[in-house]
């Protein structure tokens, strides 16, 4: 079916502003992705999947400017022993990065793609699988036009986390990054991501987990107020593999985080969680799609949002259980804490189940600070502001607890406490 | 210590008068008990004194050590030395009991211009107090009151009282939901805190708690007023004859 003219024009205008990197093993995949993108067209306000989030600023030919936040806050994960890999406005900086050689993992740059590479079998492949049954045009755009990114092959158990740091320097940067992560059978790694990245950031991460492979993914999206981001994670899980992803988003004018999980092997586990804090001009959308196509897999979605001063939070989460995915254990919860009456939370939880022997549940709530709890704390002498912060942190902590590593949990909670403290002056 | 004069209170949301002129003075070192039938205004009195929303004071006053309680924020009343042991302690998921107590103790100290308690000192004190109340380390780590049994919640209230060392303690039906052993434990906790400098106001339906926490003065409250005041024997009278006789006698 032909696209409506307006959509086609908008898509072509965006494409015209980009150039498809030529040469190397990735080019055929990029061209296929471009064809996918042209067939789907970029999203607009009429698309059902974008009902709660206006895509305009994410798809426009030119990125809206975003000022770089000046802060003396120590960057997250700074004191941690980790392999640092730094991007500045979406360009890998070898100078600021550590030597990427680390036992148990090999890391290459997408931008240096030669004729042959293991990533050829994955690049754009998981993204393409994730286009059905719901189109994700910004991910196809990413595959076609990504200018940089890392190809991370986890072959063993690296001794420290691989830490991707996204620095935002220019007010007008418009970055497109694409990472591919392949975790071999029995291998295990932790990927950290933090920083605002660019004025506008389109990022795609494809994760392929072989039998028994484990990947822990913890990211913090950087608190530049005007930044915009559209991100996708596509994860495919083979037998007995484990994927745990947690995202903390503090500020940002516009964020759309899509996570697409597909179980292709039995007895695998995927947990996707997120916490966000928004104040004022803030729109945050978590869109998750989990497909169970194997037996006895466990999926869990836990999302918490704290909103104030007119901030908007969106959650669209789906669990699809295919006919043969018996013994599926699916869980989904999305909750918002509205700190005033100007903020809003929009949720669309969905279950679609074709197998008969499954346990799936979902819930969504939205409310103010618990008055009884507040009174109880104050009656013990805790000042109102401190009591509200304690209750807010407690609310967020339930999502942060999805992160396995307790020291990382502490780092993340500290960020939340910092955000709250800044608002108390 | 606590001085309540001609206190009139109505519900904020509706035109319903709950307290209709309560006069009560609790002296330092004394235990006063308030008994009364359901709906007499006992719990309202405790809420109004501690500063809960939803009530409007239409007349009268309440002072703690000469300071106007009704003019203070909830947390200021606590820092001034007022403590309410809740009839229904609130569950606070996500906030550890220990964190909660340390925040409370140090907030009160700060409000009073005292130095904050160090972690080590706090730990030492809380361990000792918790042991007396048979509260184990696990309960201290768990979120405030979450998954606690009725008895555990009430013991936790008394632990908070012991840690905060208030000047004036109000116990709102602390005996509700307790079996005999739990009541004994709670009463022992309260008795250990009895002190010349501390006043107690024990609100209860039944005389049995007063077997364990022996009051100096007993008040009978009905229809928003204190209608009779006497010694411990008044509680026994209620136990034997119910409230009907007293209500009739006063009417």
TrEMBL record, chain B:
CDD domains: ABC_FeS_Assembly (cd03217)
UniProt GO molecular function: ATP binding; ATP hydrolysis activity
UniProt keyword Nucleotide-binding present: yes
SUPFAM superfamilies: P-loop containing nucleoside triphosphate hydrolases (SSF52540)
UniProtKB keywords: ATP-binding, Nucleotide-binding
Protein family membership: Belongs to the ABC transporter superfamily. Ycf16 family.
The protein, known as: FeS assembly ATPase SufC
